[in-house]
Amino acid sequence: MSETDFPTVDSRLGVTAPRGFRAGTAACGIKASGRPDLSVLAAHAAVPAAAVFTTNRVTGAAVRLSREHLGRRRTMRGVVASSGNANTCTGEQGQADAREMLRLAAGALGCEAEALLLAQTGVIGRPLPMEKVRAGVPQACAVLADGPDADAAFAEAILTTDTRPKQAGVRLDLAGRTVTVAGATKGVGMIEPHLATTLGFLTTDAAVAPDPLQAMLARAVESSYNALTVDGHPSTSDTVVLLASGEAFAGAEAVAAGSPEAEALERALSAVCADLAYQIADDAEGGTKVVVVRVTGAATDGEARSAARAIANSPLVKCAVFGGDANWGRIVSAAGAAGITSGPETMRLSLGGVTVFEAGMPVRTDADRLARVMAGHDIAVHLDLGAGDGEARCLTCDLSPDYIRINAEYTT
Prior knowledge:
Blueprint: E1 21-26, E2 38-53, H1 61-72, E3 75-85, H2 91-109, E4 116-123, H3 130-142, H4 148-157, E5 166-174, E6 177-186, E7 199-204, H5 210-222, E8 239-244, H6 260-282, E9 290-298, H7 301-313, H8 315-322, H9 328-336, E10 348-351, E11 354-358, E12 361-362, H10 367-375, E13 378-384, E14 390-397, H11 401-409
Helix pairs in contact: 2-3, 5-6, 7-9
């Protein structure tokens, strides 16, 4: 699915824009800054749910608990999220604390703890300050609301080193009904395409059964969050959740898998995920530019993905982009080391539409035009390997001295 097929995204729409959802937040002291750090997203009733999680073998208690709950039931009442502490590598106590958080929320919402998912992000290896969390969970549940203010508060409360909130939504006509898909996300560092380091919360008021909902989410994430990298480091806490209230359908039959309505809904979901992933790249730790790496003409899609990720993760390429240097040698050599079967004699590389390398040789270009390309905020890198029909895309950023400063000062 090409991004040109996507509907227009509205950044004013957040997690409660779809009917049937409310959100509440609290500042309970998990973050030393005193900023909001605990949030609850709740549906009016248990609704079909889908989720994808990090592939890192070192996972937080929230990831393990949420996987467990989704393995037992496919409908959920909502999600509890905390930021500032990842609750990872905290042993049995960390797992017990995660379960207690959901019991507290369940008591306030009037549901079973297993009907809730948990997402946590922040510093690794520190116990949760449970005396503060015990006060914060009921506080967040007590102020559940919908509307722009609730959306903005939720998007703010999930942040860690992000510099700004990130939300997006789409409204579409589906079988004569106005349907909304919207979401909020966080993440700016420790990001690699094995579900980028982020928490993502997506909602829709379409009616969709759990299995097709999971399939839609997996495909939307594959082309967005899983095509995003900042520093090549998968996180322990990555979680993207999708809840479908069905309230736009007023009891009508759910969207059938493979139907035109399902395809339209998936395009909307993919558009929201793509926009949220772009916002992450645009706010990346120390980043000043967004880079879209597109590899075509590969022998296989797998080779294209390997080449695109190698280019996007190369510190040398990222530093060149930061410096405005059209250093094509770093790009083609990164691709060549990625296990591809083609060589430089079939390659063609362009930067912002300007061809700089072809058939094993540099190409004489308009230097002023190329300088303008490299001075821009969005840099398009297109490498055609000339070996087949495989293609892939990866979203990344440049690498500045600020990335080192931010991560040198951040406690881990």
